[in-house]
Design brief:
By secondary structure, this protein is of the alpha+beta class. Helix content is 38%, strand content 21%. It has one domain (2-36, 43-108). The protein is built from three helices and five strands. Strand 4 and strand 5 (84-85) form a beta hairpin. The termini are far apart.
């Protein structure tokens, strides 16, 4: 069974989906996240970056408010492979660490 642990924004659209979700799969006992990529921005250069920064900021705030660590060190070899990215994590901190690493890379470009 899938359970949404954190959502951005905190209210859902009419279709019930969030723009970003941290999800727990109780059957697999793993965490994952999903991010909506089909969004339109007036300024295609700055708009997506500000949006992603807002998601990361809210996610970081939620992590701190709920006493989760936000300094998880990401081992690139463990999560980033030539065939893709690992999308299932044992802990919320691992999921956050990979998301933060990906977002920081996106923001640098």
């Amino acid at each position: 069974m899938l359970k949404e642990i954190f959502a951005y924004p905190h209210t859902h659209y009419n279709d019930g989906l969030s723009q970003f979700s941290l999800i727990y799969d109780s059957k697999k006992q793993k965490y994952s996240f999903q991010i909506e990529t089909l969004l339109d921005f007036v300024d295609e250069t700055i708009g997506p970056k500000k949006h992603i920064e807002s998601i990361l900021s809210d996610f970081t705030e939620w992590m701190k408010e709920n006493d989760y660590q936000t300094d998880h060190k990401v081992s690139f070899g463990k999560y980033f492979h030539p065939t893709g990215v690992v999308w299932e994590f044992k802990t919320i901190e691992q999921a956050y660490g990979v998301f933060k690493t990906m977002i920081r890379g996106f923001l640098e470009n």
